[in-house]
Amino acid sequence: MNTAREGKLEYYSRSYGLACGNRLELGKRTLIMGILNATPDSFSDGGKFNEVEAAVSRAVEMAAEGADIIDIGGESTRPNFVPVDAEEELRRVIPVIQAVRAALPHIAISIDTYKAKTARHALEAGATIINDIWGLKYDADMAAAAAAYGCPVILTHNRTNPVYLAADFVEDVIADLKESMEIARHAGVNEEQIWLDPGLGFAKTYEQNMELLGRLAELHALGYPVLLGTSRKSFIRQTLDLPREELVEGTAATTALGIAQGCQIVRVHDVRANKRTAVMSDAIIYPRYS
Questions:
Q1: Rounded-to-10 torsion of CA 82, 113, 70, 211
Q2: How much is the average pLDDT of 150-164?
Q3: Is 174 left (phi over 0), alpha (psi -120 to 50) or beta?
Q4: How many Å apart are CA 278 and CA 17, to the nearest integer?
Q5: Mapped to the 3 state alphabet, what secondary structure does 221-274 carry?
Q6: 65 phi, psi to nearest 5 deg
Q7: How many Å separate Cα 146 from the centre of its chain?
Q8: Which residue would you say has higher pLDDT here, 28 or 136?
Q9: How far apart are CA 179 and CA 158, in angstroms?
Q10: Structure pTM?
């Protein structure tokens, strides 16, 4: 179990057997999740990978660069995005999942969706992880889907009302995540299949994103794997005053900082740079706490 006592992080090892035959090993090194947007309106890659052939090529490239997981999404979550229904989302993601599974039979694939129908069809098509940006709170059937398939489920912090009532807003973030965890448990999701995501960039101001980024160890202390998703997000762009395509170093800085605070998975667009950052960070951090 993860703990953080007197500033010292204690890492644990956990192994996940996936339907594709792969095993994800936590506690030995940071896992890299590469982002593959099968959407025409992604904020960061402009829909470059929404055609199946191009998407598979990018997935193969990310795997070669060190990705352990390919995260496939069919609906952009950029600011002011236009929601799509499950049918359109499935039309976008299922051919990509099937093609990536055929090209990379042992890679872990996560489906980035908050709709249970999409999740179920994606898992049947070859996905092995659910990545829900609403932490099981949007679709009442999502927790049951995760339980039925026995797959890891990523619970992201998010809320429709970005007004935090606690004197310390991180307390509200943790309380919200605990609600998601209880939804998962109540539906029968195995404790060891729950991963947490602090939801940086979702329902938070610039100042709140920066504060939470410096307090990730408090999420690590909850005892679950923590996934960090900061890649090319607006608070990095705002800090550096650079366009999205020039945020590699800024993202890598957050990757190193997150690993130092116990994050065991990072979700990124630029796999090669962040893989190298993770390898260097792991070489410093893991031997100290093993």
A1: 80
A2: 96
A3: alpha
A4: 23
A5: CCCCCEEECCCCCHHHHHHHCCCHHHCHHHHHHHHHHHHHCCCCEEEECCHHHH
A6: -80, -10
A7: 16
A8: 136
A9: 11
A10: 0.92
Question: With contact defined as beta carbons under 8 Å apart, do 90 and 74 qualify?
Answer: yes
- DSSP E strand boundaries for 14-76: 14-17, 23-26, 31-37, 69-73
Q: What secondary structure letter does DSSP report for 179?
A: H
Q: What pLDDT score was predicted for residue 78?
A: 63
Say how many residues make up the chain.
290
Q: Which amino acid is present at 7?
A: G
Q: How is residue 280 written in tokens? A: 């260097």
pLDDT in tens, 227-273: 999 999 999 999 999 999 999 999 999 999 999 999 999 999 999 99
Decide if 240 contacts 247 (C-beta within 8 A).
Answer: yes
Single-letter code of the amino acid located at 56: V
Half-sphere exposure of 217 (CA within 13 A, CB side): 13
Q: Which are the catalytic amino acids?
A: 233, 267
